Amino acid sequence: MEASINEIATRLRETMGPDTTLVSLATETLKHLSSHPSFPLSLISIITGDCTFYLKIAAATYLKNFLKANEEDPSFSKVRQQVRNSLVQVLLQVEPRLLSVLVEAYRLIITRDFVKDNSWPELVPELRSAIQTSDLIGRAANMQWKTINSLTVLQATIKPFQYFMNPQLKREPIPQQLELIAKEILSPLYVIFHHFTEQVLLFQDEVNLEAERILYILSKCIYFAVKSHMPSALVPLLASWCGDLLGLLDSLNLRGPTSEDWWVVRMKIGKRCLQIVCALVTRHRKHADKLMPRIVESVLKLVNQSHIISELDHLAERVMAMSFDVISHILETGPGWRIVSPHFSFLLESAIFPAMLISEADVSEWNDDMDEYIRKNFPSDLGEISGWREDLFTARKSAMNLLGVMSLSKGPSTVDSSTRLTKRKKGKKSGKDKERSCSVGEMLVIPFLSKFTVPSDVDFRSSSASHDYYGVLMAYGGLQDFLKERDPEYTKTLVKSRVLPLYGLEGCSPFLIAAANWLIGELVSCLPPEISADVYNALLKALIMPDLEELSCYPVRASAAGAIAQLLENDYEPPEWFPLLQVIVNGIGDKEENEASLLFQLLKTVVEVGDEKVAIYVPAILSAITGAILKHVPRVPVPWSQVVELGFAALAALAHVWDSAIPDEKDSKLCKEWRSGCSTIAGMFSALLQEAWLLAVQEHADYSISPPSSCMEDISLLLKSILKYTTEVTAVVELKIFELLVIWADLIADWHAWEDEEDMSIFDAIKEAVHLHIRCGINGFLIRELPPPPAPPVSKRSIIEGFGMFISEAMEAYPAATWRACSCAHVLLHLPRFSFETEGTKQALAIAFCKAAFSRFLDIRSKPVALWKPLLLVVASCYMCCPDYIEKVLVQDENEGFTVWMHGLVCISARSFEPGLSSDSEIKLAVITLTKLVKHLVGLASGWALEAARECFESLLEAAIHLKELQDEDEDDGMEDVDENESDDEIEEDSEEDEHEETEEEFLERYALAARELGSGMIEEDEGDVDDETHEIELGDLGGLDYQRDVVSLIKEHQHRLAFGRPIRSELISSFTESFPECVQFFTALC
Is the confidence at residue 495, as pLDDT, over 90? Predict the structure, then answer.
């Protein structure tokens, strides 16, 4: 083992060197050495040995990765117990810089051995002993274990229990491992926690960093223990724990020395204290009610410092925000309301409102990082929220949330609070059961905010006027739910008298206008229709606000864009759409990336809401939009930036609304204008893609480099429009359709980022490309062409081969992609332009599709599911194209694979199969395939083949009857559909009236049932896309076959051979002869 340790250490050193070749060789060697059972123990020996710190870090990191990769390896299980025991020994004494890495490795083991399997009974006693004899607790000389390390191991052991383990249970019992830890370790540790708490509180002038860290780790342990469960051993000491925790909370100095380590740790302790309090109030009410007065006392002290928010660093502000959140949670309980309500005036005037006021930090952030300012203060659907959740919920947002909760408050609950608060509604609010008492919003909040008058032009010379009114606007934003319960006229009056006048002030502060924009966006759902026009005009004015000399007005325009989007999505329609489109398009062209991104998103929203009303303007605005996008497209083949992606998304929306606005054929003038617009759109889209794809590649003179596969969904939709609107051969050349398809086919051939919605337009574009090839013929579509130099990009394959690779892989993707892929496979296989020269391409496609479809079928054939149908029908199409090749492929994929497919086809052809063959083309493909199969099997003249032929023949008769009935049916069911829709509307209205409020018990039972169904496989992943189940499939020349003639010919020619074995069911023959009376004479031998 010694030689192994030395070799591993050497290779680890080599992985840290600058020589990439040596690094690769060392990595491969380590991978080979890791197969030895003693490998993890060797790594632990290196960590504890006499070597450099960097080598120890490398060994610890490799150990963590090794444990993660070999969790289920049988060879590791042999040494697993030895490794975990050695790892714990190392953890208890290792230096701090190694501790964090090794703890991650320990968590991998603890999750399985202790949490899931409960197969480590000695862990808790040994860990208790290690803590008791550690250096800062045992206080004896030469202590082996470190207290910080042992408590860190305890924290890692408890952490998995912060979540519920079994979602299939309605009420999960407390895990016995957590109960054991609480009894044997946490409860005895209170004495230590209390000792160190007294120490740091009594001697605040003396810094004791080790004591602070011990308190921090123990507070995390308590939080993990009570976040979901309440161990019984903690209940007797809960008041004592909370008393010390709240004492630490009271000691926080939010404006303390932020650069000092002890202050940072103390702030983290405060944060954990608040998280524990939140868990107690929201999860363990019966234990928290008696503690609420003391909790409220502590958090009120913290929120009383909200006037210094601008001076706080991020950690201190987070503590402030959580303090507001704690009050919000307490206020939603009956006992909590009684405790907090006497402090409402104090909260509003001294805590909440000061947090709303604009500060120097806001002004600084506006100037230095406008996007961060917008994200924190004015989040909207247009601005994608990113980053940590805690970064978004600032103290101002938490104060705003508390104001909303407080405003809705009408007094203590008269029913069981825990039941009331956990009710979840399945429908909209009915508006019934109005409370008789006035809300705090009416009695206190609105009167307080009304004291601040709308500033006048003169007032704006004073910074205090803007300062205070900014707070008023932000406070109104927190009253959204309160205002929803008021009459719309109430909100109308408030907006007209308190918000809209700001837009008419000369030189109004951009900070106020931005806040007003955001406020309007928040209150849009509360506004009556008659005020919408005034609001829209004000927002449109703000959307074009120019920058000031020393101040950018980008946040004003961004908040206006978000509010306009909200207004439009709430069913407001501008009197004219074109002015709004002009403002947006003109703004996109001369703005930076971030602002252009917002405007592209707004444009997309306008187009989707306006729909056919904006369609007529599409050709007029396309040129400016494509030009704006190209400004941001890089000239190197790298992934495109967000602004480019959003630009293409806006173009895709424009393409969709234009395509949906096809005029009535009776109006020749409109039809002519629409066709002219189609040509314009196709030309602009083509020019855009040429410059984004072709020119970028040609500039580098390296045609082996492909452009990035960015925006594939939207680009595929644009390409579909180009293909659809191209009707002449000359346009194919002018628009460089072949060149675009070459690149696109290569991109989708290597497509692996499967997303349900994103892939749909790719399938649609493939079908449109096939239709264009049928109309006009595209050179190189079926066979790869090598044009003479200088040449456009040369593909590694023909266009149709690229399509085939994409479709083959799609059959292995998610169910909806499988449906669409199978539909496209039929389109390609039955392409009418295949010739003798391209027959090889057709055979290659058939073989590839057959392999992919049959492989997927084998994966799911254990029980009938919806995906059987499309997969087996694809194999049927492949078989009809080249039966000999396909039979060989099926046998190669699985022994008796041909028989497996044949039985599957028989199964889905039966009317009892769900979902069965439903469209004319599906049944016809089954009929002609079964006809061919019967002929083939009868010709083999063996007993097995004749029996199989009889099985296929019975299925053929049933499918032929089904097809004949379908073709004879009257499909004019429009009036019935209308009646059904009307009745559905009535049912929906009734259901809204009969609203049901889901209780906590019902909610828990519903989710537990869903978890059980997922666990047992009752919710079937492979059910597929219901919309695709009834789609017609394209059969090409097969669709023109006279199936009746072929079936009659088959029966006439092979009736005696088909009489082999058991007789055919008489009722089946009777039904068939009724549908095909000309066949009566042939069934004598078959009865």
Answer: yes
